[in-house]
Amino acid sequence: MQPTRVLIVDDHALFAEALAARLSREPDLVILPVAADGRRALALTTTERPHVVVLDMTLGAENGLDVLDRLRERHPDVRVVVLTAMSEIDAIVQAIRRGAVGWLSKTERADLVVQVIRSAARRGGWIPPDVLGEVLRRLYAGGPEPSGGARVLGELTPREREVLQCMVDGLNRVEIAERLGLSANTVRTHTQNLLAKLDMHSALEAITLAMRAGMRPATRPPHD
After folding, report:
1. What pTM does this model have?
2. Can you state the percent helix, strand and coil of the chain, rounding each to 5?
C-alpha cells in the first residue's frame, strides 16, 4: 500500500516538531517538512504533494480558514484535517463547509490523530462525537438544498444508496457491513464510489447532501 504523505501546518514549533516526531514512527506515514505559515504550506503542497494536510486554525496573524480556502482552491484533492486548540462549534462548521474532512483538538491523544489521518487518506473523516449531532444540524440548516441534490442521488446504484442510507443512520463501516451482509472492504469500495459520484470529499458531506435531498435516519429497532 502506498505510504500516506502528511504535511503539518502549525506555527508552534515545539508542538509541530513533537507531532512530526510522533507521526514519523508510523511505518505507513511519510512526514514532510513542517510549514509554519500559509505561504510555506502552499509551496510545500505544490512541491511535495501531500495526501493529508494537518492544519492549525491559528497561524500567527493568519486565519487558518483562509489558508484552508487557498489549499482547497489550488489542491482540491488534498485532504485537510484541522488540529487546533479551538473548540467553537461555529468554527468546526465553517471548516467542514470549506472542505476540511476532520477536526481534532490538540489535547487528543496521538493515537487518535494517527487514526484520523489514515481515515482521511481513505476518504473518511472525523468530528468529535460529543459535537457531531450539533455540527450536522447546523450543516443541514445552514443553507438551501444543493441544486439537483435529489437528481445526483439518483445516479447512485441501489447498493450505493443502501450504504448511504446506513451512513445517514449513523452506522460505521463495520455496522454497515453487518447490516447489509457485506465485507468491510466491499463497504469501503461502495463508499468511495458514491463519494466520487456525489463529488464529495468526506462521509460527513455526503450525509449532509443526502439529508438535504430528503433522506432521513431510519428508526432503529429496539435491542433484544
Report:
1. 0.69
2. 50, 15, 35
What is 146-212's CATH number, 1.10.10.10, 3.40.50.1970, 3.40.640.10, 3.40.30.10? 1.10.10.10
Rounded Cα distance between 108 and 139, Å, is: 24
Beta bridge partners of residue 84, listed in sequence order: 105
3-32 residue pLDDT tens: 999 999 999 999 999 999 999 999 999 999
Which cell is 134 given?
450539533
**Amino acid found at 38:** G
Is-contact 52 44, C-beta < 8 A? no
Q: Kindly state the cell numbers that stand for 33.
A: 517538512
CATH 1.10.10.10, the chain: domain bounds = 146-212
- CATH code, 4-138: 3.40.50.2300
Distance CA 19, CA 109 (A): 11
Burial tier of 222 (Cβ tally within 10 Å: 0-12, 13-18, 19+): exposed
The C-alpha cell 502506498 sits at 2
Neighbours of 147 (CB within 10 A): 7
How far apart are the C-alpha atoms of 160 and 194, rounded to whole Å? 6
Q: Enumerate the β-bridge partners of residue 43.
A: none
| HSE of 3, CA atoms in CB hemisphere, 13 A | 15
